[in-house]
Amino acid sequence: MKLKTKKPLSKAGIITAIVLTVLLILFIGAYSKRGAFSQINLFGASEAIIESQNLDSDNDGLKDWQEKLYQTDANNPDTDADGYLDGEEVDSGHNPLVKAPGDSDVFYPLPLGTAYNVTSKVLTDENIDTLFGSYFSQKEQFLESNPTIGSQEAFSAMVPDSTIQEMAKRAFGDVYLTITDQAKEELAKIPTIFEITVSDKDIKISEDNSKEAIQEYINQAASIINSENFFITGEAFETISTAINENNFSGLDSLIIDNDAKIGEAKNLTVPSTWKDLHKNGMELTILIRNIYVSFRDMIDDPLKAYIASGELDKFPAEWKKFIEQVNDLAKTQGIIIPTR
Questions:
Q1: Mind listing the pLDDT tens digit for each residue in 281-328?
Q2: Distance CA 337, CA 331 (A)
């Protein structure tokens, strides 16, 4: 039996949503000049939704929803009681759940927190001024063409969201190349987000390449890939659309937590040496898709990272398909049966 390629990811809707989110977030209170844009909603969401996503109850540098993913205590600024704030530990590459010393061995942490925020590194005063200058210029022209709109209240009440979105798109277009190039430069300094490398020392390698040992390994690996909520399924991918459309991120949070645990399971498998390269490749792809999901989850705080993630998602299906084909080919040469769901 062959390991089948999962249902193709339906990308068009979510990528459109992400692009709109990036454009609109630049004009919502996450950054500056809040008042002029207080009436703009994010896919029907209220400003209260945006505020709730930025809530940091214990002031430790991690948003409450980020603490949920890290599984730290949102009401305790130092979950492991080692004298360092949870946010400080995350930003410095330490484990906020393990008391120092001895908490520095973090295998591909979630790309959340100040150290991973690309937007904050790119939205310079110059770029923001260009964005707002373009938007306000368009708005002024619109008001000149519609003299019956005499106040901000009237503008908010009478102008459809689609018109505001179009002005936002055009404003973003004025600085698109500049900020996306800068975002890519910043991402190059943080390769643990989208440039994943798993080495031999990161996994457990065995020289037992007997058919029995390989079959046992394959059964365990396939159980992870074939699990109901594995990231690569179309059903799992729909949780992103649901989160955006319903302003409810609980399903996406649970999916990320579950799959982060699966990465831990894969890391702890005993891998026959003839399979180590494919195992590392599979882990790299799984960590990558996890980080793409996490970037979408972080869109309100870091829209540029989410925007870049949408491009990474475009490339992902082809890479996953290639990986699955290589797995099936090697299994065939070794006479190994790969379980399917």
A1: 999 999 999 999 999 888 877 878 888 888 888 888 899 999 999 999
A2: 7
From residue 85, alpha-carbon distances to 42, 89, 106, 126, 152 in Å are 31, 6, 16, 32, 42
Q: What is the pLDDT of residues 125-164, one digit of tens each?
A: 787 778 778 878 888 888 888 888 877 778 777 888 778 7
Same domain, residue pair 238 and 129: no
Shared-domain flag, residues 171 and 201: no
CA separation, residue 265 to residues 169, 221, 270 (Å): 43, 9, 10
CB atoms within 10 A of CB 60: 25
Of residues 3 and 172, more confidently modeled = 172
**7: in domain:** no
**Any idea which residue has 């793409």 for tokens?**
292
Give dist(CA 289, CA 240) in Å, integer. Answer: 13
**Statement to judge: residues 294 and 175 lie in one domain:** no
Alpha helix stretches (DSSP H) within the chain: 12-25, 47-53, 64-70, 86-91, 118-122, 125-145, 152-158, 161-188, 211-225, 234-246, 250-267, 276-297, 303-334
Please determine, for residue 245, whether its predicted confidence score (pLDDT) is greater than 80.
Answer: no
